[in-house]
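U., I forgot to send this yesterday:
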Amino acid sequence: MVKKRLLIVDDSFVMRALLRGMVTSDPDLEVAGEAKNGLEALQQVQNLLPDLVLLDIEMPHMDGIECMKRLRLMSTVPVIVVSSVAQAGSPHALEARKYGAADVIAKPSGAMSLDLNSKKGHEIVTTARRVLGLM
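Result:
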């Protein structure tokens, strides 16, 4: 089976590294590329044609919501929002859903938490597999 390719978009190098570790822990998933903000993400989607985007909301130059608005004009790639500001039912989460997020996963309190992998890794990988039709 061909691995599904994900684009990781987060302004934090540490968070991108943590997400990369989570994604690559699943044998059916691989990281196609990474971006530090929404502008880079739009370019990477065009260049890499990923199967899924993991997208943060709060980033410099272009935030995740604006990125999703523009992304919908150029691609049908599914997006999972992984953000500390997108708690369930929050305005950010509702707006992300409005612009087509397949799911919204809140980072645990303290976005740089070293136990993010154990707390959220399973949820992120399981959600990615579900959105990609691997379950």
